[in-house]
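Structure first, sequence second, as always.
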């Protein structure tokens, strides 16, 4: 029973198809963690569609879908997630930013409302339950897996997730904005000693000052946090659609030279924690 992390979508903001987004991938945020035989999906960006296609090999299944928040790039894949239309699947959806704001089911339903989408949420035939919690609470998914959460600094709010299993841990942190010259205490607390941190690296340090207030960060800030918190590896994630393959190649060289724990997440990449 291992702990594998697969990147189904690594892009932020909007999916980008085209010849300049082939190497790193154009689908938006979606990560699959296979943890001790259990399946946890983090975010339902457009990458979720491809994940769902591969799950069809299984006749039935059970999974948790943990959402950081409900901006388009984190939920647009949900209406195209084929297991959600299969009555033999159990899907547990959780979100930490809507407890006092109508709840996650209402938001996912609104995304599929007439006339934005032809099929309503209640046409999904899987057994789906929707659960709202407050970011900062711990979640009880399976007895052998610990899930902690933390609030992030993002317009309309967002939630960080840390998954611990059998001495290994992965933390998913997107979308979040840092304060210049400061280390976010919520993030330091949740990433301490982790094997892998996946971090919102939308902008370069040169671009970031013009984007203050947009709710995003840089790989350099992720590195500062991870070095302070003794993290083993940092996945640079939530790439700006303007950062085409050649740009990302240069960014990868720079980031890997800065710290050998850094790597750039690519669509289709699998990281095994052991
Ligand atoms: Zn995003
Ligand atoms: Zn967002």
């Amino acid at each position: 029973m291992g702990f594998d992390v697969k990147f189904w979508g690594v892009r932020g903001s909007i999916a980008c198809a085209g010849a300049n987004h082939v190497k790193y991938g154009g689908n938006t945020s979606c990560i699959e963690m296979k943890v001790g035989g259990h399946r946890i999906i983090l975010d339902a960006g457009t990458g979720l569609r491809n994940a769902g296609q591969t799950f069809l090999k299984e006749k039935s299944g059970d999974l948790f879908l943990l959402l950081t928040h409900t901006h388009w790039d984190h939920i647009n894949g949900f209406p195209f997630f084929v297991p959600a239309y299969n009555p033999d699947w159990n899907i547990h959806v959780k979100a930490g930013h809507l407890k006092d704001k109508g709840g996650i089911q209402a938001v996912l339903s609104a995304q599929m409302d007439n006339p934005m989408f032809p099929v309503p949420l209640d046409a999904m035939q899987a057994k789906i339950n929707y659960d709202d919690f407050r970011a900062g609470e711990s979640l009880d998914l399976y007895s052998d897996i610990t899930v902690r959460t933390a609030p992030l600094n993002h317009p309309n709010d967002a939630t960080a997730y840390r998954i611990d299993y059998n001495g290994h841990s992965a933390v998913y942190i997107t979308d979040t904005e840092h304060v210049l010259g400061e280390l976010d205490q919520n993030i330091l607390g949740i990433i301490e000693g982790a094997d892998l941190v996946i971090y919102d690296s939308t902008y370069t340090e040169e671009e970031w000052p013009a984007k203050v207030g947009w709710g995003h960060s840089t790989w350099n800030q992720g590195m500062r946090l991870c070095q302070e918190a003794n993290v083993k590896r940092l996945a640079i994630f939530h790439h700006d659609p303007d950062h085409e393959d050649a740009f990302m190649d240069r960014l990868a060289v720079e980031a890997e030279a800065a710290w050998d724990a850094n790597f750039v997440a690519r669509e289709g990449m699998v990281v095994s924690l052991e």
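Margin note: Residues 12, 29, 71, 73-74, 175, 238 surround zinc ion (ligand 1) (CB under 6 Å).
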